[in-house]
Amino acid sequence: RLVGHLMVPLNRDPNRRAIDALAPVAGESYLEVGFGPGAGLAEIGRRAPQCQLSGIDRSPAMLDLAWRRCRQATAGRPPDLRIGSAESLPWPDASFDGVLAVNVAYFFDEGGRAVEEIRRVLKPGGRLIVYVTDRATMRHWPFAGQSTHRTFDEGELRAMLVNGGFHPEDQALTVVRLPFGIVGWIAVAKRPAVAAAALSA
């Protein structure tokens, strides 16, 4: 719980940048992968009233913190928060207009299953927003070694998205510069609104 409270100020800038890219709209449905203490989902709820918030996280300790924070931000509309992993999302295909993943791709599997699952639950035309801190910055963090974190530069972030099913032309990456010399990346990956097969028919 203490770590969860500490995560709120540490992730404030990355969350804000990522949610700006998400551009939430009232009435849409959003999933956060790795919701932590729920600050990101709560901010989406404040920006887009009457949206449906869902989230998945591995930590039961985060569930209570996130539930309270999100319920306050959504005017009583209960969020759908679950314990689990990105590699096996418990929602049907095409469930969400947007998916947010801030500072969690470090723990995605190398085989691409997590990104495949995220793409599966996106509606046609939906977007995935990923924030990661650049490898060159993380190299100076003693808690973020190769044994615990998968780190990224621009090329490897693009490759992760391609490996999960997002074509290069459906991606846009932006470098972001945060306080204390932190450099990160915001990736926007969209699921095409019309299937390729339909276009060729």
Any idea what the shape is? globular
What percent of residues are in strands?
Answer: 25-35%
Structural class: alpha/beta
What is the terminal separation in angstroms?
54 Å
What report would you give on this structure?
- The protein is an alpha/beta fold and 201 residues long.
- The chain has eight helices and seven strands.
- The protein has helices at residues 2-10, 12-22, 39-47, 60-73, 113-121, 135-138, 154-163, 196-200, and strands at 29-33, 52-57, 80-83, 96-102, 122-133, 171-178, 182-190.
- Strands 3-2-1-4-5-7-6 form a seven-stranded mixed sheet, with helices on both faces.
- Strand 6 and strand 7 (182-190) form a beta hairpin.
- The longest helix has 14 residues, at 60-73.
- The protein is globular.
Features:
alpha/beta, 201 residues, 7-stranded mixed β-sheet, 25% strand, globular, 8 helices
Short description:
Strands 3-2-1-4-5-7-6 form a seven-stranded mixed β-sheet, sandwiched between helices.
